[in-house]
Amino acid sequence: MAENSSKFWFLTFEYFKKDVNKPEDNLVILVHWLLLRNNFQVLGLLDNEDKANEAQPTDILPTNWSQNEMHKLHYKRDNELFLLSGVKACDSFIFNFYNVMTKHVASAAIGNINSAVKWISDVANNKDKFYEIICLLETDLIHPMEKENLDKKTIGTQTKKSVEDDPLVIPSAHPPSYRPGPFEPSNPFPSYGMPDLNPLGGGGMLFDPLMQRRGPNRPGVPPMARFDPTRPINPDPMMPGSFRGPRPDHMRPPDFDDSLYM
């Protein structure tokens, strides 16, 4: 890790060193500095998480932050609430970082408190150890929270692209703001029988008052009627007249014997 990763560490450590009551308090200052570098801000010592919206985020640790045996601090980033807790376990110190909204938690453990405090207090002579500690804290405690936010954005982007790039989705020829008219089919591939269920969509056997009638005007056919004629107009164009008058083959021919086939 580059040396410039310790930027503002000495300033932060000197500012809060006056509040240190226990060796592990120095480790809390270190984590606080790392959280500030990753755009987190502290809210203070909240007795009730419902008051988090009323608290003003700041870079300054709250008063009496080191008075209790167990450290508990609330942080905020991008309108999300986080809880940092730290507890001593024998010679080790364990941090837990909890996202209140997503219930996601990350943990990091410092193996030996006294050795770690020595390294972070004298960075000039312990650069490698100092960078090793901050690398551990960032990898196990902070970066999992950043990866969680990145995964949520990636999933949202992939879901949107999957819909747009789906080869089975039929692209629309109309702009997104287009709305079909009341007599225009909205589905280019309707199911069989759907036109009968939706007479305004066009087609089907139901009467559509706006649909043009079939064929020319015929005597005795109501205007705009949708049914086939009961007979052809003129089945035999070579024979004059129409079906309305008698024709030679309408009557029995002379001497017709209908008992021929009896």
Q: Can you characterise this structure?
A:
The protein has 262 residues and is an alpha+beta fold. The chain is 27% helix and 13% strand. The chain has 5 helices and 5 strands. Strands 1-2-3-4-5 form a 5-stranded antiparallel β-sheet, covered by helices on one side. Strand 2 and strand 3 form a beta hairpin. The mean pLDDT is 75.
Output the keywords.
262 residues; alpha+beta; 5-stranded antiparallel sheet; 5 helices; 5 strands; 27% helix; rod-shaped
Structural class: alpha+beta
Described by the principal axes of the CA atoms, the overall outline is: rod-shaped
Helix-strand sequence: HHEEEEEHHH
Please state roughly what percent of the residues sit in beta strands, choosing from under 5%, 5-15%, 15-25%, 25-35%, 35-45% or over 45%: 5-15%
